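Researcher: Go.
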Amino acid sequence: MKKIIILILVLICVALPKTNAQNSPSADNVYTLQQCVETAFKNNADVKQAELLAESARINYNQSKTSMLPDLNAGISHSSYNGRSINPYTNSYINEQNNAASYSLQSSVVLWNGCSLHNYMKQNELNYEAGKMDAQNAKDKITISIILNYLYVLSTQEQLNIALAQVEATQKKVELLEIKNEQGAITPADLYDMKGQLANDELSVVSTKNSLESAKLTLAQLMNIPYSENMKLLAISDDAFLQPYNASISEVYDNALNHLALVKSADLKVAGADKNIKAIKGQLMPTLYLSGGIYTNYSSTANTQEFVSTTDVQTPDYVMLNNAKNPVYTPQSTYNAIPITYGSQLNNNFNSAVSLGLQIPLLNGFQVRNKLKQAKVAQEQLTVEAQHTRDLLRKAIELDFVNMNSDYSAYKILLKQVDDFEQSFRAAEVRFEQGAISTVDFVIAKNNFDRVLINLVSIKYNYILRTKLLDFYQDKALW
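Model: Structure:
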């Protein structure tokens, strides 16, 4: 049994690193495009800020929903009076110390106010949905930036590989010419021309390395991670992208309208502005509300009278009997004051009230009407911005589509040109080694071949970038 448990623990420990490795870079800092984008989502400040704004909009939406519920308030008051005051129990004046308490529970609800509260709630709901789209749009922007810089790093890395191969090939030619120069088979000028070309190739390597590290630095900063010279990116297969694009401008644009968060956010904000106008119009209508409450109180002076006895008491009055004044007696009762208990008073003094009210707005300095005009202007502005967003999107798609077709046409031409210049270079290389052409002629053939290789890499990644952007507009998989 112990062996089985140990075996299970070992398997778990082995499996955990493999699971994490799918979504994190490997030990030698090799990143995929997906990992770069997901890392940027976690670390980018703009994305976090947009998510917090969306959360704030959610709270506002929840608050607007609860504002339609009845309110409920409890009140407790304890007071101590000295001197002349009113006995809350008998409602008569007293001149003694009095400790009093009152309790209340009140509630009110708006029955109708021109649907103003309902429309405010719908506005906040739309604003919340727009906030979520804004958060997604922040992710979309960082995604585009990551794709652009990711492909630029790959393009620069390929250019560096070409430059390093050029240096290696030129170095071999210099070594060959040094041997021939020692043998007196060539003029020293041929050797120095080739050494000058080697220096040019080495400078190209230095310049390309600098461009590569700058591209890595930009990508690391977009991901908000420390820069590392050891960062490596997983190459993208060319086969899936170097094909004619199978969608038209209108198809890409229509799909973008249905998927892009940027467009959805603009439309939701326009709809929210319309609800705001309706909510403000509701404030011009009468408000019908229902309110009620229950109340009770206590007083330390409240007491009840308990009968003790009755005695006859002589009064100032008299009657004449036999010409003599006989006093008049009247019965007088004696009572003891017994304080009423706290609980009895609360029960005895319990009362309730219900009221139905109607508030009619007549004049408030035209504040609501001016607020309504401002809301209409705001809606017009949002409508213009929504249309402007669509126009910019259409122009961006059109530009990417035209550039993509141009890049694809140029790519096919460059493929043929690379083949032609390669054949020319190979022939010049053979003739140069045989001494049939000068170093200058060989260098010209070499530079032509090197230049077209660099152009091919550049146009290839330009085309991949355009297709990636068009795929992104249509919400297609990017990896």
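Model: Residues 29-34+134-285+365-473 form a domain with the Outer membrane efflux proteins (OEP) fold (CATH 1.20.1600.10).
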